[in-house]
Amino acid sequence: MVVWLNILVIFLAFVAGMCIFSLMSTLAFRVENEAKLNLNMYCESCGHDIKFYETIPVISYLFLKGRCRYCGAELRGRDVLNELFGGIITVLVTLRFGFNPSMADKFKLDEVLDVALNFTPMKLIGLITIVAFVAMMDAVTLVDHDSMIIPDGFNIVLFVISIISIFTVPGLPIVERLIGIIVVALPMYLVILAIPNAFGGGDIKMMAAVGLMVGWKLALVGFLIGVLLGGFYGMYLMAVKNYDKKAHFAFGPFLCIGLVVAMFCGQDIIGLYTEYIAWMRSDV
Question: What is the Cα–Cα distance from 182 to 69, expressed in whole angstroms?
Answer without folding.
Answer: 49
